[in-house]
Amino acid sequence: EGVTEVLARRSDHLQEKFMEVPCSEDYGSHKRFAGCTPRKCGRGVTDAVITREEAERIRRIAERGLSLGGSDGGASILDLHSGALSLGKHFVNLYRYFGDKIQDIFTEEDFALYRDVRQRIQQRIAQVFGISSSAMYLTKPTFFSRMNSTGAKTTHDEYWHPHVDKVTYGSFDYTSLLYLSDYSRDFGGGRFVFMDADSNKTVEPRAGRVSFFTSGSENLHRVERVQWGTRFAITISFSCDPQHGIGDPLL
């Protein structure tokens, strides 16, 4: 594991913490988009963009949606855009599977809050990386995750492997995570780990905390296995390529 440094503790209330890292060569093999493609790379953490109260409201959206299904293993996802919902060992399309019942689960206010939070995160990323917010496009997959200590039943449940988002998802240029529960209070394990050559840098989740980073191999990362309790988060990611852009989810 090497040396581990804590980038952000749960007990910290960070206005903003940013760590610049050299950009990897990944971006050279992709089309460049002026005003968006990373020229400065790194990772940031802020507790000043989303309030704890908003994070709790968003977690309730996740809980209501995930109560309709859930994985047999330890990791369940809910994607409000595509409708993908973990169910047993598979995924179903929430909108097709439940039809008009969805109106009883989610409200217009839920989707308005989701959109507002997404916009604020997008603006903060643009500001920190010195790019144009209007040149960034929400991209898929953007999803809620619920993780617990249940053993993996399929490869989808194995969330703890090191990976690079640009390699895994292709369209990602900037990744953000909004945490919806607290490390060591709601769950144990489950810290976010940036894996650098010389050391690991960890982020301890806390409700309302946003962690964001450039999606190339300069930010190889993993999530520790959850040991107890339940960890909720939402992954919201952005592409510089308008062809990979998606709209906000609609009820």
TrEMBL record:
InterPro entries for this protein: OGFOD3 (IPR039210), Oxoglu/Fe-dep_dioxygenase_dom (IPR005123), Pro_4_hyd_alph (IPR006620), Pro_4_hyd_alph_FE2OG_OXY (IPR044862)
Gene Ontology molecular function terms on file: dioxygenase activity; iron ion binding; L-ascorbic acid binding; oxidoreductase activity, acting on paired donors, with incorporation or reduction of molecular oxygen
PROSITE patterns: FE2OG_OXY
GO cellular component terms listed in the entry, alphabetical order: membrane
Keyword Oxidoreductase in record: yes
Keywords: Dioxygenase, Iron, Metal-binding, Oxidoreductase
Domain Fe2OG dioxygenase: 140-242
Co-factor requirement: L-ascorbate
Protein name in the entry: OGFD3 protein
Source species: Vidua macroura (Pin-tailed whydah)
Gene coding for it: Ogfod3
